[in-house]
Amino acid sequence: MAETVEYEVVTQAGAGRDAGSGEPVLMSARASEGGLDAAAAAARRLVDALVRLGDSTDYDTDALATRINAIAAEVEDALPDEAARLVEMWQQEGPNRHDLVTGPQNPIAPPLVVHGQPDGSVEASTTLPIAYQGQPRMAHGGISALLLDHTLGMANGWAGRGGMTARLTLNFKRPVPLGEPITIRAKQESVDGRKLYTQGVLSVDGEPCVTAEALFIAGHLPRPTAD
Ligand SMILES: CCCCCCCC(=O)SCCNC(=O)CCNC(=O)[C@H](O)C(C)(C)COP(=O)(O)OP(=O)(O)OC[C@H]1O[C@@H](n2cnc3c(N)ncnc32)[C@H](O)[C@@H]1OP(=O)(O)O
């Protein structure tokens, strides 16, 4: 029996809305051209360049580290109070801009772009850079697991009832190439009380690479509050 936690059901923006229009609905946050989204995109670009750089370069990587640390220190000087930032992160309805997988403000997010489909499924897409490499030229399996877990979670939100992952079963059928568009389709297949059963598949060029089946338990941890 898990430790008792307080639950609050958080539905995704767009969940259930416009599903009858016949048009896919954007569920992940749209990236802005400027501001923090642009800074996060620049950080992603820098990470990609660093991973591709390697040790054989003549480029002065000591000086580079000093410059990057100077920028980090400048940003750290501007940070808001951590507790207040956590409240801000979670206060908005709709897609989180800081999200690990889809968030335009999170440099670690690929980011994945997710659309809710009229048939109740969701479809997500991205292209993975070399920072996510596992085997040569292929994505690390843990990244595929992350993308699938998250997309299945968003499929629950689109179906109207989200939850926390209790069990995730993956079947790695073929390697996921870097640098090529990947698509993830996911759908909540059935609900039994608080148990949500959701399935998905990650494909490249129409070929299934990783399939996922998951059990989610409805409910979420409470959002941080100011007090
Ligand atoms: C933007 C949205 C996308 C987000 C997607 C990403 C989702 C995540 O990553 S969530 C983070 C990863 N997951 C976690 O950290 C979860 C950790 N686990 C927990 O907190 C708890 O175990 C939790 C919440 C899953 C279930 O706990 P609790 O609410 O107490 O439920 P509990 O009473 O134990 O179980 C409810 C039922 O589910 C069943 N169940 C629970 N866990 C499992 C499991 N792993 N396998 C099979 N059955 C299970 C129980 O047997 C019980 O069944 P029944 O009602 O028939 O007796």
Can you walk through the features of this model?
- By secondary structure, the protein is of the alpha+beta class.
- It has a single domain, classed as Thiol Ester Dehydrase, Chain A.
- Helix content is 29%, strand content 25%.
- It has 4 helices and 7 strands.
- It has a 7-stranded antiparallel β-sheet, with helices on one face.
- Octanoyl-coenzyme A (CO8) binds next to helix 4, strand 4 and strand 7.
- It is an enzyme of class 3 (hydrolase).
- This is Acyl-coenzyme A thioesterase THEM4.
- Belongs to the THEM4/THEM5 thioesterase family.
- Its EC number is 3.1.2.2.
Describe the secondary structure blueprint for this structure.
Layout: E1 25-26, H1 35-53, H2 61-77, H3 82-91, E2 113-116, E3 122-127, H4 141-159, E4 163-172, E5 181-192, E6 195-204, E7 207-218
Antiparallel strand pairs: 1-2, 2-3, 3-5, 4-7, 5-6, 6-7
